[in-house]
């Protein structure tokens, strides 16, 4: 490995209070360090962009320490091992893990989530429908949502990377699926592309009436990725023993001050219902089990997905803000050019 | 049976908006009807008084239809079968069930929750520590709370009829128990009488600090019988995979308008925690299993209880309001005089 090999990185320049914008990041350059025993080098080919990254840079207490100022932006990425002094990783292995928004990543295996072995499917899927998005959808729905055939499953952010998978997996499980999305285009996408039985537009003035009409038998499972007024509307319609899976709080722009809303306790009590937080990290030991289910569904077309691929590291700084502007169409990824293209 | 036998009853005179007061009830007199085939007659000896009765008379949607105006007040009661044309119930059987605030109840068995067979224990316990209170404590804690040895279990209304049992059952399960009660007397009762490891006074100005000191390792299980600011304080301290069992909302005086509070979703998400409503009716098929556990604990003194017995039907109308005034010491019951005393 050449000592002069350069690694371009997106680092956190300042700490955002809410949604991280382009100006909170800058592009820096570092040397790729020599490998020590037990390490290997990954050439990142795809970097992930996801809503949760907001929480990774905010100072507020969260489920992980925030990215330090000046640190490489934490992210999932997928790439190929190009050099190795680690017995478990060979040159040519495809890996997915917390490799950061950078061209090259040195790893001792700690941040690696899985080796990507699915034959005949693009590596990018390991960051989307076969990655954290699909794994989140699978475990959140099956383990916490526990859908039974005939159940009505309501999905918020229904056309999103996770939500669209939740809806389709629920359909495969024999449920009636109802998608909630923003605007007529996404609503139609729920119906045409992701096969929801019904879809409602939370931005429409008659949202509440749309929701009621879409759930004539109430709500058994609610995949809650929004919190806020969408959740408040769904909770009104839960059935006995309903399961609410809290996976995200996309509608809440800031937790300082902490937002208020209608108290949930009486709804849960009246219906013996359950509201439970879900973190996909809790299921890391079971990822392969889920991929083994999901990959065949992708191959046979029962589990559709959308990707939106941005090109080059320069597109990264504004990419999270763009998610919150709602401009993405499907799982947002950043594709890095092949190594030779910028002359290592 | 004499045709002239009279039955004094407490009926709902008007519908309260919040907590039912004495003036919402009146005492009426009806004939005891002749028994038809499949019916039996119970002489009520103890009538139950409990916070949930507020919900049974309010018009707001709840888990049961409200008591109609002019109807006998719904309640648990325990008594003895004095006449029977039902093959399953014999004269002399002790029964507990939804027999109402009245002296005599004709039943076809529908409202009966169980036959009381515990040897050497007072019948009144079938309405308290061996009745709905103890059953609620047992199933709410074990089935929803799922305590493990070493867990910190926090109990609101900790000196109450259900809460005190929750705390003691959690202690038997090997947990550290922390009681929350109102005022220094109830707080001391938690420590001296119900064996909590720590107790805090939610009315004290330093409640939050008391709670923090009592839970140095956070909160694994929270028995929530209050909602409101007590719950908001406990939720701040929950551990990974915490279980919040919602059994009541005693601190909420009205659900019209629906009260607001800090949103719970982010707490549940950050901790993969669960908040679940509990209704003891869901466990009716398992009552005997629980009584078989609870009765030996009562006999050997590991499960202590307090009863507060009011005398006569006349004490019923104000009895629910009294609970909400916090004047009761232990499970509140109304004892009816023996049949002969008012000259049937």
Helix content of chain A: 10-25%
- Biggest interface and residues each: A-B, 35 and 35 residues
* CATH architectural type of the largest domain in chain A: Alpha-Beta Complex
- How would you name the CATH homologous superfamily of the largest domain in chain A? Medium-chain alcohol dehydrogenases, catalytic domain
Strands of chain A, total number:
16
What is the general shape of chain A? globular
How would you sum up the major sheet of chain A?
7 strands, mixed
User: How far is it from the N-terminal to the C-terminal residue of chain A, by CA?
Assistant: 11 Å
CATH topology of the largest domain in chain A: the name is: Quinone Oxidoreductase, Chain A, domain 1
What does the average pLDDT of chain A come to? 94
Strand content of chain A: 25-35%
What pattern of helices and strands is seen along the backbone of chain A?
EEEHEEEEHEHEHEHEHEEHEHEHE
Structural class call of chain A reads alpha/beta
In the predicted model, the low-confidence regions of chain A spanning at least 5 consecutive residues are: none
The total number of structural domains of chain A is: 2
Integer-rounded radius of gyration of chain A:
21 Å
Quaternary state, please? homodimer
CATH domain class of the largest domain in chain A: Alpha Beta
Contiguous helical run count of chain A? 9
């Amino acid at each position: 490995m050449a000592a002069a090999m350069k690694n371009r990185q997106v680092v956190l320049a300042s700490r955002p209070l809410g949604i991280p914008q382009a100006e909170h990041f800058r592009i820096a350059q570092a040397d790729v360090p020599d490998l020590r025993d037990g390490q290997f080098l990954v050439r990142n080919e795809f970097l992930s962009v996801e809503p949760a990254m907001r929480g990774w840079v905010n100072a507020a207490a969260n489920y992980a320490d925030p990215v330090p100022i000046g640190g490489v932006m934490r992210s999932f990425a997928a790439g190929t091992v190009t050099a190795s002094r680690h017995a478990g990783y060979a040159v040519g292995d495809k890996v997915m893990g917390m490799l950061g928004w950078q061209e090259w990543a040195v790893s001792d295996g700690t941040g690696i989530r899985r080796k990507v072995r699915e034959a005949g499917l693009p590596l990018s899927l390991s960051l989307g429908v076969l990655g954290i998005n699909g794994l989140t959808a699978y475990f959140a729905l099956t383990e916490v949502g526990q859908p039974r055939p005939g159940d009505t499953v309501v999905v918020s952010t229904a056309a999103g990377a996770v939500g669209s998978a939740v809806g389709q997996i629920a359909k495969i499980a024999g449920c009636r699926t109802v998608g909630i999305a923003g605007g007529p285009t996404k609503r139609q996408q729920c119906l045409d592309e992701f096969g929801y039985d019904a879809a409602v537009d939370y931005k429409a003035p008659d949202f509440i009436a749309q929701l009621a009409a879409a759930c004539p038998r109430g709500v058994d499972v609610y995949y809650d990725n929004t919190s806020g007024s969408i959740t408040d509307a769904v909770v009104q319609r839960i059935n006995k023993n309903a399961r609410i899976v809290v996976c995200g709080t996309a509608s809440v722009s800031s937790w300082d001050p902490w937002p208020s809303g209608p108290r949930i306790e009486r709804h849960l009590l009246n219906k013996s219902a359950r509201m439970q937080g879900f973190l996909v990290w809790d299921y890391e030991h079971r990822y392969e089990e889920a991929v083994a289910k999901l990959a065949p569904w992708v191959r046979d077309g029962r589990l559709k997905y959308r990707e939106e691929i941005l090109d080059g590291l320069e597109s990264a700084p504004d990419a999270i803000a763009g998610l919150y502007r709602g401009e993405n169409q499907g799982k947002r990824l950043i594709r890095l050019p092949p190594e030779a293209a910028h002359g290592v």
